[in-house]
Specification:
metal-binding, 4 iron, 4 sulfur cluster binding, Rossmann fold, alpha/beta, 4-stranded parallel beta sheet, 11 helices, 11% strand, metal ion binding, iron-sulfur, 2 domains, 3-stranded parallel beta sheet
Length: 265
């Protein structure tokens, strides 16, 4: 077991050694493993899974990058090497269902791994949380968010890429009652500027960074909170808030953090 100060997270290798199988594998992703800010999101979602008493596990040190960034950057060989390694491990454990908090991992595992022999049922965490709320398994308390307003930014790989628009908004509405929509939202939403491996390259010539343009859309709504559902978006839009010196006015929270707070976890 990997132990946090507040949570225990089951590791697949430990369970397999005991002859146990899981209902879900939680794919943490590179950001959830290495990025200090997004580690908070991964912990929040793990707390929710534990709260629900879900039979799940993580791969731990056996999990590697899905290869999304390598593929977007044009290195198909590296992508396939990473994918095949992951597929071998997933198939060895007999994994059937995978929950992802990162839309990039979700998209790659769902739409690109099947070509290489990786066939799994992929579940985005927003759809999972939305379903659990509708089933009445998550009793959310809106008191921590009273008198606050919020907007939601559609991640490209979640929205336009996989047509997941309603689930994230249903989660926000379950806590806040409403979502103040930006002019550019859903299928017309603007990218945060990090997708397609853009996060890992130098800026090109231009008048303005994409994340600054997008955070201006957010600030137009005059909200207290910005909800995101992607580690790339979390990084880029938080940087945009800092660039505009609005840290004291707008807080960027992932949907998993909002739900965890509403559960008092």
């Amino acid at each position: 077991m990997t132990t946090d100060t507040k949570i225990d997270i089951p590791v697949m290798a430990d369970l397999a050694a005991e002859g146990k199988q899981v209902d879900y594998l939680y794919w943490v992703g590179c950001a959830g493993a290495y990025d200090l800010r997004y580690q908070k999101v991964a912990r929040s979602f793990a707390k929710i899974l534990n709260h629900l008493k879900v039979n799940y596990a993580v791969l731990g040190t056996e999990e590697s990058c899905t290869g999304d960034a390598a593929k977007r950057a044009g290195n198909e060989m590296l992508f396939q090497m990473q994918a095949m390694q992951n597929i071998e491990i997933l198939n060895a454990y007999g994994i059937k269902k995978i929950i992802c908090t990162c839309p990039h991992c979700y998209n790659t595992l769902k739409n690109e791994y099947p070509d290489l022999g990786g066939h799994y049922e992929l579940i985005n965490y927003t759809e999972f949380l939305d379903e659990q709320i509708k089933l009445g398994n998550l009793k959310l308390d809106s008191n921590p968010f009273l008198n606050e307003s919020i907007t939601y930014h559609d991640p490209c790989y979640l929205g336009r890429g996989n047509k997941i628009y309603d689930a994230p908004r249903n989660i926000v509405k379950a806590v806040y009652g409403e979502v103040k929509e930006m002019k550019r939202c859903k299928s017309s939403a603007l990218c945060c500027g990090a997708g397609g491996a853009q996060m890992f390259k130098d800026a090109e010539k231009g008048d303005k960074e994409v994340n600054i343009e997008r955070i201006e859309d957010v600030l137009e709504q005059k909200v207290d909170k910005l909800a995101t559902a992607c580690p790339f978006c979390m990084t880029m839009l938080t940087d945009g808030i800092k660039f505009k010196n609005k840290e004291d006015e707008v807080e960027n929270l992932d949907l998993a953090e909002i739900v965890a707070q509403a559960l008092g976890l």
